[in-house]
Amino acid sequence: MINLNFILELFKNNFGALILLIALSIIISFEVMVYVESIRYILVGVLLSGLVFLGLGILFYGYTSSYLYAILALFVAVIFLFLGTYVIFLIIFLLYLFDILIIEIVYFSASIYSIWTWVIAIAVAIVMYFIIKQLNKILNKKLFLLDSEIKKNEKRDSHVRNRNKSEN
Amino acid sequence: MSTSWLGSHLPSIITYLINFLLEKSTFYGIVIIIIGILMIMFSKYFKPLFFLFYILFMMAILGYYFSLVSKLLIAIFISLLVFMPFLYLAFKNGYSMTVINLFMLGYFLLIFPAIKYYLNSYLLISTFIVVIFISSIITFYMFLLIKRKLFLPEGERI
Question: What ipTM was predicted for this assembly?
Answer without folding.
Answer: 0.78
